[in-house]
Give the backbone structure.
Amino acid sequence: MIDLLFRHKNKKQQIRLRRLVYAMYGASIHTLVCLFLWACDLFRVSGYEFIITFLLAWIVNGLFFMLIYSGMNERLKDPSLTVSMMLWSITFIMYTVFLTTEVRELLLMFNFFTLVFGTFHLGVRAFVALAFYGMFLYLCVIQTLKVYYPSLIDPHIELIDFFGFSLVSLAYVVIASEMSSIRDYLSNKNRNLRLALDKIESISITDELTQIKNRRYILDVLKQQSLIAQRNAYKFSICLLDIDMFKSINDYYGHLRGDEALIFLCKTLETVMRKSDYFARFGGEEFLIVFPLTTQKQAEKVAERMRVLIATTPFEGLDASHPLTVSMGVTEYHAPETVETLLGRVDKALYLAKAKGRNNVTGA
């Protein structure tokens, strides 16, 4: 219900608004109790003074609401305003305790409601400071009443009340300390879980041998690129490359040397790859490159530079009889064709490059 009344596009701000509204529920009950006490002639103020006092209090509450609703609180060190709101609440509650002629214990209970408000959000030090702040203010109330309104106070009874109030406040400190420990524990668990999920996600889209992206990742990229191209005047091209005579490299030098050749190829190509390009191992000795915002002619020129770079960069693991070269097929996406159609066409281009004698770039 609260979320419907006070919607906010920022989820954190929505949560802060909800907490503030709950705090205002508590403030409303406090106001009604004080009104009842005033009606029973248990408040040392006139009706006019009572109205002014609580009107000012609710103006302050409204300011807290506007700070969060407008987003100005996010510029502050404590954007939740928890400490500020609790300081204000404790101060005003103790002021109303001072104004009562009797039943101060009833209004003191609202101080504990305020402490509950901070139990799940404050660190131990801040909570201890606020608890002792409340005890200090209550002691000041007792001393002020003793000096200026001695007829309204029994010092012995009031000290007993103060002792009980302090014990309960300290009990809240212990609870808050335990809650803080639980909160830190859960926060660490959530952080470790996020790191683990990120690692799993990274592993699921990374080729174990070459440490570049894998087939699953590049297929997702192709789907995204095709969707963009179908909705906008957007062009992209792809290049499928294959290491020439890779089986003979494995047969002659062994699979370990073949793995080294794959890693060498990836590192060499990454030196000339644009940051906007996508590069992945598509399967075995095949690799797929996606060139965003690139026509087929532009992609063919880039692919040719890559081919020359591979052919002219010596790989110490092979001798002259087995040079490391690649054949490359290039094509451009034509909306609204499917990704499967696109891949079929680039595969044919690669086949043609192989048929032409390998170590060349062919478009389709």
The chain has two domains: 2-198, 215-363. Strands lie at 236-243, 278-283, 286-292, 326-332, 361-363. The two ends are 59 Å apart (CA to CA).
